[in-house]
Design goal:
Residues 154-357 form the L,D-TPase catalytic domain. Pathway: Cell wall biogenesis; peptidoglycan biosynthesis. It comes from Rufibacter glacialis. This protein is an alpha+beta fold. It has 3 domains: 2-24 and 30-136 and 366-388, no CATH class; 152-205 and 274-364, L,D-transpeptidase catalytic domain-like; 207-268, no CATH class. The chain is 32% helix and 21% strand. It has 10 helices and 15 strands. Helix 3 (69-81) packs across helix 4 (97-109) and helix 6 crosses helix 10. The longest helix is centred in the first third of the chain and has 21 residues, at 30-50.
């Protein structure tokens, strides 16, 4: 009886809300998410105990309008999660329009392209058991509970596993969001969770190449392409104590260069192709992480956006800057006049520093009641499970 009631509620959500549910905002206030995640945990505890979840082989094939027993198994899983309404025949072995729509819902909730096709990524998400999802929910609940005592305030929230940036008002409700690119997997270039305050932004910034990138990327590039620095409007400086001297890249033997013995610094001039774009947002932190524009706009169209060296690239930095330069965050603000200037590098301080949080949330519940899951990009969920003993 309980299981049937759960399915009927799922049907109501599926029918009444439609695809617009995935355009809903999210209230990120810790207390709100704690309550919602606790309810989700109760549901997944029940799913884990039922032991009805079906796992699929890697080479299983789902084809629209064709009949196959694996379609029955897929229907069962999507009934359990509420992505498929209970009125749809559970024993139907065809991949019909109803099942395809349910797959789209499942894909959206897992941050996947919602094409209705069960490809490798969707199959991988389907093969995560309710017990595994339960542990994922418990880790994320713990993260929210740790922040529940904080005083609510307007802030910039970057959710690393979701590749999104959110402006939150003082109640924790989302006022605006945009896409971001975050750091690559692997310890060297991860975007690390942290909290700070954005104090100022820099227009038309130069980019001082970090030494790690100079060693790992610039030196090999110069060995293959001696014109790389000049073509990218980069200058090379020889370092001696606190003094730096501009030198010609042609004067350096790049094949024998040992940066530990001969320290150099590379600085890229402002411009359209500068790696930081036209704006960067500065906040104190021990990892030299900041938010910034980028000339590589095409990367924002990728569903999985892990291409940076640790900093966060923002799809619409001008809009973010406009919001930050105003005391309030109404919709449709006109661009701040200062942002239109094309003069050399210039720092602009905010009227009031704004909290910024780089968070690692792999599950949450939006304001439409939809439960979302994301991949554990950096293995931080796995580490937290061990730490919390879950």
């Amino acid at each position: 009886m309980k299981k049937r009631t759960f399915y009927v509620l799922s049907l109501a959500v599926w029918v009444l809300m439609g695809p617009s549910a995935f355009q809903q905002t999210t209230t990120f206030a810790p207390a709100v998410q704690v309550a919602r995640l606790q309810q989700a945990i109760l549901k997944y505890q029940a799913l884990a105990q039922q032991n009805q979840w079906v796992f699929f082989k890697e080479n299983v094939c789902f084809k629209a309008e064709e009949s196959d027993t694996c379609h029955v198994d897929l229907r069962q899983n999507l009934l359990l999660t509420g992505d498929l309404p209970a009125t749809v025949a559970p024993e139907d072995s065809t991949y019909d329009a109803h099942l395809q729509q349910a797959v789209r819902w499942f894909q959206r909730r897992h941050g996947l392209p919602a094409d209705g096709v069960v490809g490798n990524q969707t199959l991988e998400a389907l093969n995560v058991s309710p017990a595994q999802r339960l542990r994922q929910l418990q880790v994320n609940l713990q993260r929210r509970q740790e922040a529940a005592a904080q005083v609510p305030e307007r802030q910039v929230l970057v959710n690393i596993p979701n590749f999104t940036l959110h402006l939150l008002d003082s109640t924790g409700r989302e006022a605006w969001q945009t896409r971001v690119v975050v750091g690559q997997p692997g310890e060297a270039y991860q975007t690390l969770p942290l909290e700070s305050r954005i104090g100022y932004l820099v227009l038309n910034p130069t980019w001082t190449v970090p030494q790690s990138i100079f060693r790992r990327e610039i030196i090999p590039l110069m060995r293959r392409d001696p014109a790389y620095l000049a073509r990218n409007r980069m200058q090379l400086f020889r370092l001696s104590g606190t003094t730096r001297t501009l030198v010609s890249p042609a004067s350096v033997n790049w094949h024998r260069l040992d940066p530990a013995k001969e320290p150099y610094l590379v600085v890229q001039s402002p411009g359209a192709n500068n790696a930081l774009g036209r704006i960067k947002f500065m906040f104190a932190n021990p990892h030299d992480i900041y938010l910034h524009d980028t000339p590589a706009k095409a990367l924002f169209q990728h569903p999985t956006r892990v291409y940076s060296h640790g900093c966060v690239r923002v799809q619409h930095p001008e809009t973010l800057a406009t919001y930050l330069l105003n005391h309030h965050w109404p919709q449709n603000l006109p661009p701040a006049p200062l942002l239109k200037q094309t003069s050399p590098e210039k720092a602009i301080f905010l009227p009031t520093p704004v909290k910024v949080k780089l968070a690692y949330y792999t599950s949450w519940v939006d304001d439409a009641g939809q439960l979302h899951f994301r991949k554990d990009l950096y293995g931080l969920d796995r580490n937290a499970l061990l730490w919390f003993g879950l």
